[in-house]
TrEMBL record, chain A:
Record's protein name: Unannotated protein
Coiled-coil parts of chain: none
Pfam families: Fer4_7
Domain 4Fe-4S ferredoxin-type positions: 70-100, 116-145
Annotated family: Belongs to the complex I 23 kDa subunit family.
GO biological process, one term: aerobic respiration
Family matches, as InterPro entries: 4Fe4S_Fe-S-bd, 4Fe4S_Fe_S_CS, NADH_quinone_OxRdtase_chainI
One Gene Ontology term, aspect cellular component: membrane
Keywords: 4Fe-4S, Cell membrane, Iron, Iron-sulfur, Membrane, Metal-binding, NAD, Quinone, Repeat, Translocase
NCBIfam families from the UniProt entry: NuoI (TIGR01971), PRK05888.1-3 (NF004537)
Essential cofactor(s): [4Fe-4S] cluster
GO molecular-function term, one example from the UniProt record: NADH dehydrogenase activity
Automatic annotation (TrEMBL), chain B:
Keyword Transmembrane helix: yes
Pfam families in UniProt: NADHdh
GO annotations of cellular component type: membrane
GO MF annotation: an example: NADH dehydrogenase activity
Residues spanning the membrane: 12-35, 82-104, 124-145, 166-184, 196-214, 244-270, 282-305, 325-345, 351-371
Keyword Transmembrane helix: yes
Main location: membrane
One of the GO BP terms on file: aerobic respiration
Topological relation to the membrane, as annotated: Multi-pass membrane protein
The entry's keywords: Membrane, Transmembrane, Transmembrane helix
Intracellular or extracellular location(s): Membrane
Record organism: freshwater metagenome
The protein, known as: Unannotated protein
């Protein structure tokens, strides 16, 4: 570290910088070569590491960066608040978000705002996961799904419908009001664990 | 009756049948060897290789061939059109020709005619093979030259230099075989090996031949003419469709034919391995063909093994190896073999032969010691760098006493 500082101030004479002699691996000799040939020969009799892909699909690592998913609160309301932090974090400019205000008649997420338009362009996405780190509500996460090939540009721009997580047991399809006597802070803390009958719009 | 006389009595129709058989055989063997190579290299890299088209992927090469044939055939605007078309034709025709003098079986009966599975027998059979191989190289050189593009030109140049260098070593390694067999005819050479193979008697020649035949066929680790990493595709960069397929075919037929040549010259051709001589009469003599092809397959396996194991040589290393090691070693070896052969032909006493052999061994050891000493001296030598330059120069990457402050 001190060396680098000295360079900046032209205090260190370049001539006095010592070079380390690097040990070059020389000739490996006949036995070394034989060893190399043995490696390839013996590998013939090992079981191949590959899988027959389209028929057999090996599971990915647990935290593999695959297709994104927009998550929901346990009562079915969307977690996305349309803040666009993911879009700002994206180094490839692959995300487009348009937020809109929630109203009492049309509530998609707890709190003031929700993501009205949410697009991810998978021709641009580099699956770095910075959007996931940026998301303040854990609305955006990544799944392990990696089969994202298609035959047109349009099909590879995923809309909100493509990205939203499924409605699980106990969830109601938004828009619907928030859980009675709960506000967005309760949602954020995880106090809401299921939907309430009063939330259902008849 | 010698094989030459046996073949000489062939009627015209039989010669045609044999020629057709050799041709069909080479093509089928090429298709299978492409598949075999990909499977084997795959296994060496712990993957299965092509296994989708047909049983075990056997007709993958055929499918690839059909695909290649259906591709657009492009001739670059800068290309010399006549030569550009001619080059793959030269490559693909010459590669089949060397198989004409390879004896595949001993005496057999084909359609009621006593003959041997060998298209023709020339008194200078092996020289003919070498000549054909040299003509075949024109295909590569002309392809590189006529493409009108830089990378193919470099590939063609490399290939010409490569083949010239390695042909010398190859030719020299064969001289010992000629001296021992007393003939250049392939059938005579095989007949002379009925007791011991030349791979054993003339082991250094065999090694030199085996190395130079890899250089001669432009195969890894000597595939500098088409080095993908440096020259895109080398001489065939600009080729597409059927013309490319012809080069592909030529490469594999060449492998098969040099393997067949090596089998003929060093591994006793169609003869059975030691102690299995009784099998040579099985199936009316046709069993010898099985021995022949198993030997060819062994060579083919070595080709694939080399490709799976060794990285490509640097160009200067490659030339150095050819000119500074292979050629001098073969020349010295020929001198030794010639002397020994002369001694034994003149009926010299055993003591003289043994004396000469030990003298040679001693000489080799002395030369080796000399080389080691010279190498050590060179390593220890301190270079005089002259007066220090006026501008800043980092010290050499070797620590010397004077560098320590």
């Amino acid at each position: 570290m001190s060396n680098i500082e000295a360079f900046k101030n032209n205090e260190l004479d370049l001539k006095k910088v010592e070079f380390e002699q690097v040990d070059q691996p020389g000739s490996v000799g006949l036995l070394g070569h034989a060893k190399g040939f043995w490696v390839t020969f013996s590998t013939i009799f090992k079981k191949p590491e590959t899988v027959e892909y389209p028929e057999v699909k090996a599971p990915t690592q647990e935290r593999f960066h695959g297709r994104h998913q927009l998550n929901r609160h346990p009562d079915g309301l969307e977690k996305c608040i349309g803040c666009e932090l993911c879009a700002w974090a994206c180094p490839a400019d692959a995300i487009y978000v348009e937020g809109a205000d929630n109203t009492e008649e049309h509530r998609m997420s707890p709190g003031e705002r929700y993501g009205k338009v949410y697009q991810i362009n998978y021709l641009r996405c580099v699956f770095c996961g910075l959007c996931i780190e940026a998301c303040p509500t854990r609305a955006l996460t990544m799944t392990n799904e990696y089969e994202l090939a298609d035959d047109s540009r349009e099909k590879l721009i995923f809309e909100k419908d493509d990205l939203l997580g499924p409605l699980r047991a106990g969830m109601l399809m938004p828009p619907h009001p928030m859980y009675p006597d709960m506000d967005d802070k309760n949602y954020y803390k995880g106090d809401v664990t299921e939907s309430h009958p009063s939330q259902e719009i008849k | 009756m010698t094989t030459a006389q046996l073949i000489g009595a062939d009627p015209g129709w039989l010669i045609t049948v044999k020629a057709l058989l050799v041709f069909i055989f080479c093509v089928i063997l090429t298709l299978l060897s492409v598949w075999g190579e990909r499977r084997l290299v795959g296994r060496m890299q712990q993957r299965p290789g092509p296994n989708r088209v047909g049983p075990f992927g056997l007709i993958q090469a055929l499918a690839d061939g059909v695909k290649l044939a259906l591709k657009e055939d492009i001739i670059p605007a800068a290309a010399d059109k006549v030569v550009f078309v001619l080059a793959p034709i030269i490559s693909a025709t010459t590669c089949f020709m060397s198989f004409a003098v390879i004896p595949i079986t001993g005496p057999v009966t084909l359609f009621g005619q006593k003959t041997a599975m060998q298209l023709t027998d020339l008194p200078i059979g092996v020289l003919y093979v070498l000549a054909i191989a040299s003509v075949g190289v024109y295909g590569i050189i002309l392809a590189g030259w006529s493409s009108g593009s830089t990378y193919p030109l470099l590939g063609g140049l490399r290939s010409s230099a490569q083949v010239i260098s390695y042909e010398i070593a190859m030719g020299l390694s064969l001289v010992a075989v000629f001296i021992y067999a007393g003939s250049m005819s392939t059938s005579d050479i095989v007949a002379a090996q009925s007791k011991t193979w030349y791979a054993v008697v003339l082991f250094p020649s065999f090694v030199i031949f085996a190395i130079s035949m890899v250089g001669e066929t432009n195969r890894a680790p000597f595939d500098l003419a088409e080095a993908e990493g440096e020259l895109v595709g080398g001489f065939h960069t600009e080729y597409s469709s059927l013309k490319f397929a012809l080069f592909f075919l030529a490469e594999y037929v060449n492998i098969i034919s040099v393997s067949a040549l090596a089998t003929t010259l060093f591994l006793g051709g169609y003869h059975a391995p030691p102690f299995l001589g009784f099998t040579e009469n099985w199936l009316g003599g046709w069993f010898t063909a099985i021995w022949f092809f198993s030997k060819v397959l062994v060579f083919f396996f070595v080709f694939v093994w080399l490709r799976g194991t060794l990285p490509r040589l640097r160009y200067d290393q490659f030339m150095q190896f050819g000119w500074k090691i292979l050629i001098p070693v073969s020349i010295v070896w020929i001198l030794i073999v010639a002397t020994l052969r002369l001694l034994s032909l003149q009926g010299a006493p055993r003591l003289v032969v043994v004396g000469f052999a030990s003298f040679v061994v001693l000489l080799v050891m002395l030369v080796n010691i000399g080389f080691e000493k010279a190498k050590k001296k060179k390593e220890e030598a301190v270079f005089d760098e002259g007066p220090a330059p006026s501008f800043a120069v980092p010290a050499l990457p070797i620590k010397k006493e004077s560098d320590h402050v």
